[in-house]
Fold this protein.
Amino acid sequence: MKKSYILQDLDCAVCAAKIEKAVSEIEGVDAVSVSFMAQKMTIDASEDKHADIIKQAKKLIKKIEPDCSLIV
């Protein structure tokens, strides 16, 4: 199931690419797409794993881009 989330205060395209790569490596993620221009991330994963994936994604995003927040 695909779900989209807002990436508030994402400041650079390189960081967007790093976030996309890092989130794609989380177990259970089938596909991920980060749009720097739209400030949006779309995650394709099974419904029951989304909550755990989001928890892990928030930690990774803070490591890569400390000012960026994932809005659920």
Residues 5 and 61 are 13 Å apart (CA to CA).
